[in-house]
Amino acid sequence: MTRRDEGASPETRKGDETPRGEVAGIRAAASPADRAARVDALRRARPQRRFLRFSLFLLGALFAYAWASGAFTFVDLGTERAQRNLTRFLEEIRPYPLQGVPWDFSVYVTWFRDVILPHTGVALLATLALSVAAIFVAAFLGAALAPFAARTLATPSPYLSAGQAPRAATRLFWRGAVIVSRALFVFTRSVPEYVWAFLFLSTLGVGPWPAVLALATHNMGILGRLYAESIENSPGASSVHFRATGASRAQIYFASLLPGALGRYLLYFFYRWETCVREATVLGLLGFVSLGWFIQDARAGVRYDEMFHFILLGSVLIVFGDVVSGWVRKRIRQSV
Amino acid sequence: MTWDLSVRNASVRFGTTVALDGVDLAIKAGESVALVGPSGSGKTTLLRLLGAVLSPTAGSVRIDGTDVAQRSPRDLRALRSRIGTVPQDLRLVPELRVYQNVAAGRVGRRSFLGLTRDLLFPAQATLTEIHTLLDRVGIEEKLYHRVDQLSGGQRQRVAVARALYQEPELLLADEPVSSVDPARARDALELLCKVAAEHHLTFVTSLHHIDLAREFFPRLVGVRRGRIEFDVRSEDVDEGAIERLYSLEADELLEEGATR
Amino acid sequence: MSAVRSRGRTPSERLRVVVGIVLAAILAAVYLGLDPTEFFSHVRSWKVVREFFGAALAPTLTSESGSGYFLLPQIWEGLHATVVFAVAGMGLALVIGTVFGFLASSAWWEGELVDASSGWTDRAVRAIGPVVTGTVRVIIAFLRSIHELLWAMLFLSAFGISNAAAVLAIALPYGGVLAKIFSEMLDEAPRDAASLLRAAGGGSGTVLLVGLMPRALPDIATYSFYRFECALRSSAVLGFFGFPTLGYYISASFENLYYREVWSYLYALILLVGVVELWSGWLRRRQEFA
User: Which site among A6, A9, A16 would you substitute to test the B interface, given the most B Cβ atoms closer than 10 Å to its Cβ?
Assistant: First the structure.
């Protein structure tokens, strides 16, 4: 990679004012051919970002391939059968008593009160509670494991290399701790929430614990990594000071690093909570009684009017979560 | 061909703050003028009037013989596209390469597609033209460098080249020495005066530093508290006038924040 | 947590948030009946649990079914479909995100970039700008607020079975998210260069192109790449709805109780996401975007 070669080097930064033309060799009076050649030479020697170019090219090629592969086609959506389906679907998402008759708002209200409203409280509360419990567990585990994954802290002698060289076993232990905790984070976050939920609910049985654990597992991987990065990016001065006074690793974490990084911890917490609300709505599709369960139930019974309304309800819940999270994050950011 | 400027009894108010108060100033085509005075005196506001980006609350500004207020929007844009500005903070796009930043100078006369082409696939003619300008400001070898990898002095040269690429009739510079380190202040002014002379431009700059202003500019305009304090040839500036110009009063200290 | 009280710059605010979180978590746990003593009371069969998690250590490359065929072709097909749907959906999402993100930002009508004194086009832009932005923001919020699985469900119910539904199911919510983030990044990009170019006679379109877009682009690229990782996971999950991505193979193998196969597919997914994560991390660390 040749980018930033000259510009970033300290000599050129120091040497500030470049010589005027004399050294550069070409003056304004140079012949057009000379100048064109010089421009060409500069272009060939320009700092390039080959890896970025390659990545963009690869993504472009992937995109072209995806559309050309024939794995899907939008023609499907235009066929006569699909259009008939669509017309029927649009009719069926109208509340049942209003299908085939002119719109009447009072009928709609009655229907909503009788059919949707009785389930609303349970559906929304269960979904919300699931998301809150899950993100709490995820953040707790993530924060507990992050110190072992932060390369600045998980070393034999963090922030201060004094005294005799650490024993080989100690070195090995901390190196292992970093590798294992990071691998755990990668492992848990690479598998989506929904897949964890599917596996947990099928093996452990349907209940609140498997649902919470499924959401928490994935988010622990994400939060753990983000938390570890916040620790690594914490300014080290106060930790060095603590270390010099003989503080243990745990004392450094709780007294120096955690207070400093708490703002970031909380920002990430709420950022992930938003996605937890989203995911909690759909975990119900797997049998746990949250919003998704009512959606799935309505779909199985081909009651598209109910399904549609529960989906809209979920959308309201998610917007609510976004607004709350955005508000809290703004306050945290101001206080950090 | 270059433009003459005239400001007649112009005042500028921001809310209750008076930034300029009945200023009269005439600048001949091809003339070089330094506006001097303490910070907050109204130099920058006066420059913005001359750059046709600010209209006076009262009075008039004539650029190239026509009142700015009388010009149609299209005409005004055409006018602005020929006014090259080197602002104090340079206002480059650090993520872009040098030639792209210079090419942006002609934003007022290029179509959307034309400008896109200049940025991504510049024509050979465009590149050689830009290279010529970079050569003139002394950083021709930086043609393809990203601006965020250049030093402060080099960046200022890019800003000068961008202004020149506009093919300006009028060149304005706001405190050009404040964005480079003191040792390079002389170089910066030398460069600006050189290009202004070579291109026969009308050149107006604001300058806090009175000694440099006397050294490089034939004519000094002292601005204080929104008024013109003196307007003389630099060899005629007397120490008393300068002392009066920079003597601070308590209320000016208070005003400073508001007028800047 | 006592350290927070003594050292944080505004401890009371953050402490209040932490206390709020703990209280909310307790309420949630009570509501859900999360009793620690009943942690495993729902478990129907410990044998299944043992078998399933034991299989994690023994993934297989030959099928556990009677015929015992080679599994790699199926893994490959699952990976292939996962990538194809993610890439296609993400491509559409980028289009949606760019167009809506631009419209939802105030950069094209607010502030110094549009000079109300200069011409009827700019005045018109200034007048309709807030209306367009407000409307588009509502649309974006709607797109985002429905989970990709639910979009898929809606499309399947509306059109019948079609793989295009999977692409749309990714494209719409992801397009909404991208649009929101893009607009925020455009709004937060420094406008100094833009206002100078405006003073040099530039129109709002050209000024946006050269003065504002380049400043927001590195962040936009970084974020888009991160969303691409997410799209891969979403694409895999869509398999649970019958699309031929990894989720389909996972659920099929699980239902046949071929747990070792399930883990093979899971590891393939982890590998895929891991590679893309490395790729984007590499770009980010070398600041190729910046």
Answer: A16
How many residue pairs bridge chain A and chain C with CB atoms within 8 Å of each other? 221
Domain total for chain C? Answer: 2
User: Do C7 and C106 fall into the same domain?
Assistant: no
Q: Based on the domain organization, do C95 and C12 belong to the same domain?
A: no
CA distance linking residue A149 with residue A228, whole number of Å: 6
pLDDT digits (tens, 9 = 90+) for B180-234: 777 788 888 888 998 898 888 999 999 888 888 888 999 999 888 888 888 888 8
Query: Which residue is associated with the tokens 């990065």?
Result: A229
Whether C255 and C168 map to the same domain: the answer is yes
Q: C139 lies in a domain?
A: yes
Q: What is the dihedral of CA A291, A294, A298, A301, to 10 degrees?
A: 150
Can you give the pLDDT of all 336 residues of chain A as single tens digits?
333 333 333 333 333 444 443 333 345 456 788 888 888 888 888 887 888 888 889 999 999 999 888 788 888 787 888 888 888 888 888 888 887 788 888 888 988 888 888 888 888 999 999 999 999 999 999 999 999 998 888 887 777 666 667 788 888 888 899 999 999 999 999 999 999 999 998 888 888 888 999 999 999 999 999 999 888 888 877 888 887 887 788 888 888 888 888 888 998 999 999 999 999 999 989 888 889 999 999 988 888 899 999 999 999 999 999 999 988 888 888 775
C134 and C212 part of one domain = yes
Nearest chain B Cα to A46, which residue? B144
Which of C200, C205, C215 is nearest residue B80 as measured by Cβ atoms?
A: C200
ipTM for the assembly: 0.86
Q: Do the beta carbons of residue A192 and residue A218 sit within 8 Å? A: yes
The minimum CA-CA distance between A2 and chain B, rounded to whole Å, is 12
The Cα–Cα gap between A315 and A194 comes to 18
Contacts of A191 in chain C (CB under 8 A): 266, 269-270
Map out the domains of chain A with their CATH numbers: 5-68 (no CATH), 76-103 (no CATH), 110-335 (1.10.3720.10)
Both C258 and C115 in one domain: the answer is yes
Q: Is residue C177 part of a domain?
A: yes
Range of the domain at C8: 2-42
Task: Note whether residue C63 is domain-resident.
Answer: no
Write down the pTM of the prediction. 0.84
| List of domains in chain B | 1-82+170-260 (3.40.50.300), 92-167 (no CATH)
B28 CB-near residues (< 8 Å, 6+ apart): B4, B202
Shared domain for C273 and C221, answered yes or no, is yes
Is C47 among the domain residues? no
Minimal C-alpha gap between B240 and chain C (Å): 37
Indicate which of C113, C196, C289 best probes the interface with B, i.e. most B CBs within 10 Å of its own CB.
Answer: C196
Tokens 């699952």 correspond to what residue? C78
Domain identity same for C115 and C246: yes
Q: A3-40: buried (b, 16+ CB within 10 Å) or exposed (e) per residue?
A: bbeebeeeebeeebbbebbeebebeeebeeeebbebbe
A66, A203, A260 member nearest C84 (Cβ) = A66
Instruction: Give the residue from chain B lying closest to C207, CA to CA.
Output: B107
CB contact under 8 A, A13 and B153: no
Which residues in chain A touch residue C157, judged by CB atoms under 8 angstroms apart?
89, 299, 304, 307
| B90 contacts B159 by C-beta, under 8 angstroms | yes
Residue C155 and residue C17 in one domain: no
Q: Indicate the burial class of A48 (C-beta count within 10 angstroms; 0-12, 13-18, 19 or more).
A: middle
